[in-house]
Amino acid sequence: MGTITAKPHGGGRKAAIRGKQVSKLKSLLRRCPDATIEQVREHLGDVTSATVCRTLNRIGWTLKTARYKQTERGVFRSPFCNPVFTTKCGRLYEADCMQILPRLPDGSAAMVFADPPFNLGKMYGPKSRDRRPEQEYIRWCQSWLRECVRVLRVGGSLFLFHVPKMAMQLGSYLVNDHLRLLNWIAIDYNLGVAIPNRLTPRHYALLYFAKGIRQRSTSYATRSRHAATVGKM
Ligand SMILES: C[S@@+](CC[C@H](N)C(=O)[O-])C[C@H]1O[C@@H](n2cnc3c(N)ncnc32)[C@H](O)[C@@H]1O
User: Fold this and answer.
1) Pocket test for ligand 1, best of 115, 119, 139 (most atoms within 8 A of CB)
2) Among 17, 37, 90, 230, which is disulfide-ready with 74 (CB 3.0 to 4.6 Å)?
3) CATH H-level superfamily of 83-232
């Protein structure tokens, strides 16, 4: 006679999604926010639709319940994905960029313009954190820039506005990530804050990149061929 070990949940499907499975679920949701319950079940293995739904509620995702009942498949979206303003030209989101960007499809943006906090200790609201150790700040910028490059379509343009020191570091990161630097535009800025033992900055950098092969229809360089490369603030 051998030993019989009781199977979890009487041998049925798992009643809860925990630990690594939750991370796996979250990563799927980031990549495919429109995944169906059925797709989630396939991805996670041995779980029921009810378990998936309970877990989605627990981790703060909402279900479009009516549709779920109708089709048993249900499309769900994150509450963060609701735009605050919508027109026929597009949608405006107001949230942490890392809650929105990972949910946008690859190649869905014609242009990205980034004017991020410069890590100078400014207050941008209760949740802002504009004074981080330099390497942590760079890693944070790289995380949202990586997403920007992913959502940018081939032929699209990416603009990054920053202080020259960070423009150098983030610019070199971007050049290694499928982007071509078209122009370093110097924005004339006379109100630079004095920094001890250094020259007072008198310009900001506006880096202008294109993704992949240039396509005339979306390349801003072709439209502003005669524009000066020195701007004024
Ligand atoms: C240098 S200001 C840019 C201002 C903007 N260009 C304008 O004209 O209003 C940086 C902006 O980034 C926003 N911000 C800070 N952290 C953010 C985050 N994690 N996700 C999205 N926006 C953020 C701040 O609220 C602030 O409005």
Assistant:
1) 115
2) 37
3) Vaccinia Virus protein VP39 (3.40.50.150)
